[in-house]
Specification:
Number of helices: 3
Oligomer: single chain
Largest sheet: 6 strands, antiparallel
Radius of gyration: 15 Å
Strand order of the largest sheet: 2-3-4-5-1-6
Shape: globular
Order of helices and strands: EHHEEEEHE
Strand content: 35-45%
Structural class: alpha+beta
Helix content: 10-25%
Distance between the termini: 12 Å
Length: 121
């Protein structure tokens, strides 16, 4: 079966809480993941919460990379969704795991838009 896209859900556990609460670091990490795999950024939105936490999303031509952080739990939830095959989303995940110093990451993979070939092909 073919798919329209691959969606990675990252459970970034045991992260460095100072990095998770630093808006500039979060923005730079998402850009680093995108640029590191050759994704094309077309938009962004980031927000620093009070008293702590950051949320951010990069819209990329290939779909999106997003994150929500909970420094008080040393945890971040990140998504990497890509349509097509112009880059390997697992490589972008590795960048985020490293940049947030997650010592206990988990990755769930979802194939989006399962397509079956027409009968007779």
């Amino acid at each position: 079966m073919n798919v329209l896209g691959l969606h990675l859900l990252l459970e970034l556990k045991e992260c460095n809480p100072q990095l998770l609460d630093n808006l500039d670091h979060v923005r730079n990490a998402l850009y680093g993941a995108a640029e590191g795999v050759g994704a094309h950024v077309i938009g962004e939105s980031f927000h620093q919460f009070s008293p702590q936490g950051v949320t951010g999303i990069l819209s990329i031509a290939e779909s999106h990379i997003s994150i929500h952080t909970w420094p008080e739990y040393n945890y971040a939830a990140a998504d990497i969704f890509t349509c097509g095959s112009s880059f390997e989303p697992r490589d972008a995940a590795k960048v985020l795991i490293e940049l947030f110093e997650s010592s206990a990451p988990e990755i769930k993979e979802i194939r989006r838009g399962l397509l079956s070939l027409p009968v007779g092909i």
